Every structure is written in structure tokens, then in C-alpha cells.
């Protein structure tokens, strides 16, 4: 039997492949879904006999793409060390203040791994939909995943040992290379972003050692944070989600933002700065919550200014009939503005803090800041939602000593007694104290800085006294004005009562006069009748 020429062999192979692809395209296009599913199942089973390799898929997102897979992240970290040696195409990211690079596999790249003598193939893949449809969220259609391929004889080793090994190794690598991040939520109009959050490296240097606050109060906060961080089992025991709320309130410049940064650095948490005015509605707020990672701080600054959180807001509805074109244009613009306005309600925010959805994740701190605590709804800041209320007040002497050590490296000075006395009588924020203490030029003496602070406190005292005198004068003026208005009202009331009494008297007098005239008239008629009757009787007698 003569062998088949090589050219004819490849022609036959090409024809077979073309026929197979044509038949498969016909099946995909015209066969019903259920029949197609049966065909695919038996096709996979047939090829399974021929292919001795097993493949496991690790998708990037789980739970209807609402949350990033921890397994995917662990594998990504695990492969960062392997891929730097074996892969040909890599992606680099700077971490740890750009002192090192973390390398990872590029899309559609493959590396070979080995574990206990078992050969394993890793593939980084991405699927982009081929449909040419117009989507408001095109980037969210991308599907990224890792493929793990191994021989069927190694199934037990891979499933029982290797997968647990890569998860533990990936978490260790993440902890080693972890760079904390500061996140901001995307506007609802930023539809081109795949995630609801964007981030930059968190590099704020604040810490509790340099925080200008009374040491006892500072230590109390540190103890509370440590208790929370080590309290996973305790929260499970009492049946609560592993989260804690802090309300920071006080005048501007008292260090609320610095406190948040110090807490983040102490706990080694990421910070999520939530801008409520950029959130479209309560549903989007829940989506943001789901995407927040564990070990994080959720911050809503100046919450009293963010939204009208006094309940369901009332919208003014027009009841007038349609007018001319100009009026229609105005109504159209009003509707467009209403669409842009955030629909987040107080109820939605309360559910975000401690509702059922708040348990999607753990080890989270929720921090609100405000300059006016009294403006907030009681339901929003009650214990259980805002568990700990921290007042950030004006600078006291203990806080001043911390600032003096931070800015001037001075533990004690002869001017401290005077400064202590002035701080007790004068309200000055830590920000203003720090500005006065900061040297203004190279080589400035510490004494000059303390003199500038004393001068600032004196000026603040004068300004405060002047403001107080103006407020008292304004209050006295208002009281005098109210007194004058009260006298005028009483005088007007007396005049109205006198006028009413006069009218009543005149009305009564007119009534009495009318009664007399009526009686006189009645008497005249009676006399006439008597005379007439007498006449009649007289006539009758005649």
C-alpha cells in the first residue's frame, strides 16, 4: 500500500477541519438551546476520553459579578513571583513608595509551575464580547480569569494540597507587598470605569504619636481600636457584623481628617472616601458597599452638608397646564437637573451602615465627620450605628505640648505657663496653633515661634471679646426691639379693645332707641283700634 503524499494528507485534514467548523456553526446558529446543550455535553465527554488533562477556571468576580473573588486575587499574588521568572510578557506595578516592583502575567500569557513533582500550567485569559452592541457599561463586559491545567492522574494532589498551598502563599505575598490605598467613588455618569471605585496610594504620614490631643483621650481611642481589631470571635459570639462606627465632631481645624489618617495608619487599613452626592440612588450605594474590601475605613466627611438626610425629600410638583414653548423648556431643564440629583435617602444610608447588606464583609470602620452634631438625625448617630462619639475640640495645653514637640522639638519652655493660662481662656484650633509654631524661615529661633503664638492668642482673645461684645449688643438691641414691638402690640391691642367696646356701646344704644320707637308705634295703633271699636260699638248702640 503506497503511503499518502504529505500534501494530500494536509488537504484532507484541512477539509475535515473546515467541515467540522461548518457543522458546528450550523449547530450554534439553528439548533434549539436544549438540543445544543446535549450535543455539547456529549462532545465534551467524547473529547474527554481523548484529552487526559483537567482544567479549572478561577473567574475574577463571584456572585453575579458583584464582588471580586478572593481566590483570583490570591492566585494573582502567587503567580507574581512565578511569572517574573518564566513568563515572557509581564505587567509591572510599583508598591512600597516605588521602592520595588510587583510583576504579574499579562493577558493571554501562560507559565508552567511545578508542585511536588506535578507539572501544572497557568494561563491568564480575558474574554471580550464579540457583539457590536452599544452598552453604557462596555468595560464591565470583559471577563478575566485564570486557567489551571493538570493531568488527570494528579487530581488528588492538586485538589487536596496544591490549591490550599497557592491560597496561603498568595495571602502571604499580598501581605508582604501590600500598599494601602485611598479610594474615591466614581460618579454615576462615569460609566466607562469598570469598578465603582478609583484609588491612589495612601501616603498620609499622620499617627497617634503626633496627633494633637489629650494623651488620656488618645489612649482611650487606641485601646478601642485594638479591641476591635482583635474582636472577630467576640463579634461572632454576640451575633454582630464585624464593624464599628465613629462620629468625629467639632469646629473646623480641630484635626478630624488627621484623626482618620492616624487611625488608618495604626490599623493598616485602606480608606474609602464616600461622596454621597455622586451616588445616584440607594441601589448604587449598596453596590459600592459590596465592592469595599475587608480591613478598610469608610469615611463620609461633613455628612451634615452631603445630603438632606432628614427623611424622604419632598419634590415640588407643578400642577399648572402646559404653557408656551419657553415654559416647556424650563420644565425640561428642571427634569434633567432632577435626574442628576442624588436619590440617596436617610433610610438607604441607615441600611448601608447597619442593615443586612452591611454584613457583606468584615473588619470595617465607618467614620462620619461633622462640624454641627446637633444638625444630624438622631437615628443616624445612635449607638449601634455610630458606636463611639469623639469630640475634636479646641487646642488644650496637652495638645499644645504635642504640637511643640512635633514642630520645634521642645519639651518645655519658660513661656509654657503663660501659654497654658491663655489656652484656658482662649479658643484656638490645633491648626491655628500649629501654624503659629511652624518656623517661617530657616534658622528661626523657637522663642520667636512661641512669641508669635502668644501674640496670636492675644489677638484671638481680643477678637473673641469683640465678637462677644457685638453679640451681646446685638442681643440687647434685639431684646429692646422685641420690647418695643411688645409695647406696640399691647397698645394696639388696647386700642382695638377700646374701639370694640365703643362700637358695642353704640350698638347697644341704638338697640335701646329702636325698642322705644317700636313701643310708641305699637301704643298708637292700640289707641286707634280702641277708638274705632268704640265708634263701632257706638254705631251699634245707635
What does this molecule look like?
By secondary structure, this protein is α/β, with parallel strands linked by helices. It contains 16 helices and 15 strands. A seven-stranded mixed beta sheet has the order 10-9-12-13-14-11-15. A four-stranded antiparallel beta sheet has the order 1-8-7-6. A hairpin with a 2-residue loop joins strand 6 (about 110-115) and strand 7 (about 120-125). Helix 3 crosses helix 4 and helix 13 (about 395-410) packs parallel to helix 15 (about 430-435). The longest helix has about 100 residues, at about 445-540. The termini are far apart. It catalyses: ATP + H2O = ADP + phosphate + H(+). This is AAA-ATPase At3g28580-like. InterPro entries: AAA+_ATPase, AAA_N_dom, At3g28540-like_C, ATPase_AAA_core, ATPase_AAA_CS, Mitochondrial_chaperone_BCS1, P-loop_NTPase. Its cofactor is Mg(2+). Belongs to the AAA ATPase family. BCS1 subfamily.
Amount of beta strand: 15-25%
Give the beta-strand count. 15
Oligomer: single chain
- What structural class results from the helix and strand content? alpha/beta
Amino acid at each position: 500500500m503506497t503511503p499518502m503524499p504529505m500534501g494530500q494528507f494536509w488537504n484532507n485534514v484541512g477539509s475535515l477541519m473546515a467541515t467540522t467548523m461548518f457543522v458546528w456553526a450550523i449547530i450554534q446558529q439553528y439548533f434549539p438551546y436544549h438540543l445544543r446543550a446535549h450535543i455539547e455535553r456529549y462532545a465534551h465527554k467524547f473529547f474527554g476520553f481523548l484529552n487526559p488533562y483537567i482544567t479549572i477556571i478561577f473567574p475574577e468576580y463571584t456572585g453575579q459579578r458583584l464582588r471580586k473573588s478572593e481566590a483570583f486575587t490570591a492566585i494573582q499574588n502567587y503567580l507574581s513571583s512565578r511569572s517574573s521568572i518564566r513568563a515572557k510578557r509581564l505587567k509591572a506595578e510599583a508598591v512600597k513608595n516605588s521602592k520595588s516592583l510587583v510583576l504579574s502575567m499579562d493577558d493571554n500569557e501562560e507559565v508552567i509551575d511545578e508542585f511536588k513533582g506535578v507539572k501544572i500550567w497557568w494561563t491568564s485569559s480575558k474574554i471580550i464580547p464579540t457583539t457590536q452592541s452599544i452598552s453604557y457599561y462596555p468595560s464591565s463586559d470583559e471577563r478575566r480569569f485564570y486557567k489551571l491545567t493538570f493531568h488527570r492522574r494528579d487530581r488528588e494532589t492538586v485538589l487536596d494540597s496544591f490549591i490550599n498551598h497557592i491560597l496561603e502563599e498568595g495571602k502571604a505575598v499580598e501581605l508582604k507587598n501590600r500598599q494601602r490605598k485611598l479610594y474615591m467613588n466614581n460618579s454615576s455618569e462615569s460609566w466607562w470605569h469598570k469598578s465603582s471605585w478609583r484609588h491612589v496610594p495612601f501616603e498620609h504620614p499622620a499617627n497617634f504619636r503626633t496627633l494633637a490631643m489629650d494623651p488620656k483621650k488618645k489612649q482611650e481611642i487606641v485601646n478601642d481600636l485594638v479591641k476591635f481589631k482583635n474582636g472577630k470571635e467576640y463579634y461572632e459570639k454576640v451575633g454582630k457584623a464585624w464593624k464599628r462606627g465613629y462620629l468625629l465632631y467639632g469646629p473646623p481645624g480641630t484635626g478630624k481628617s488627621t484623626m482618620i489618617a492616624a487611625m488608618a495608619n495604626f490599623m493598616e487599613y485602606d480608606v474609602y472616601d464616600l461622596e454621597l452626592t455622586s451616588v445616584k440612588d440607594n441601589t448604587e450605594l449598596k453596590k459600592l458597599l459590596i465592592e469595599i474590601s475587608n480591613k478598610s475605613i469608610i469615611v463620609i466627611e461633613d455628612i451634615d452638608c452631603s445630603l438632606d438626610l432628614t427623611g424622604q425629600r419632598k419634590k415640588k410638583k407643578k400642577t399648572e397646564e402646559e404653557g408656551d414653548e419657553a415654559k416647556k423648556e424650563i420644565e425640561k431643564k428642571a427634569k434633567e437637573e432632577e435626574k442628576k440629583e442624588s436619590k440617596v435617602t436617610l433610610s438607604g444610608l441607615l441600611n448601608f451602615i447597619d442593615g443586612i447588606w452591611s454584613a457583606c464583609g468584615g473588619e470595617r470602620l465607618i467614620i462620619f465627620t461633622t462640624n454641627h452634631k446637633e444638625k444630624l438625625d438622631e437615628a443616624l448617630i445612635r449607638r449601634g450605628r455610630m458606636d463611639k462619639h469623639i469630640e475634636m475640640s479646641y487646642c488644650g495645653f496637652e495638645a499644645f505640648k504635642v504640637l511643640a514637640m512635633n514642630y520645634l522639638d521642645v519639651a518645655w519652655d519658660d513661656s509654657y505657663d503663660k501659654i497654658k493660662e491663655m489656652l484656658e481662656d482662649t479658643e484656638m484650633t490645633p491648626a491655628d496653633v500649629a501654624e503659629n509654631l511652624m518656623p517661617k524661615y530657616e534658622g528661626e529661633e523657637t522663642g520667636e515661634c512661641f512669641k508669635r503664638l502668644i501674640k496670636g492668642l492675644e489677638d484671638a482673645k481680643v477678637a473673641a471679646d469683640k465678637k462677644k461684645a457685638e453679640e451681646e449688643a446685638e442681643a440687647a438691641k434685639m431684646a429692646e426691639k422685641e420690647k418695643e414691638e411688645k409695647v406696640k402690640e399691647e397698645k394696639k391691642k388696647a386700642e382695638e379693645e377700646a374701639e370694640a367696646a365703643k362700637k358695642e356701646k353704640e350698638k347697644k344704644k341704638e338697640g335701646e332707641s329702636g325698642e322705644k320707637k317700636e313701643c310708641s308705634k305699637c301704643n298708637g295703633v292700640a289707641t286707634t283700634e280702641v277708638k274705632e271699636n268704640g265708634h263701632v260699638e257706638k254705631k251699634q248702640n245707635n
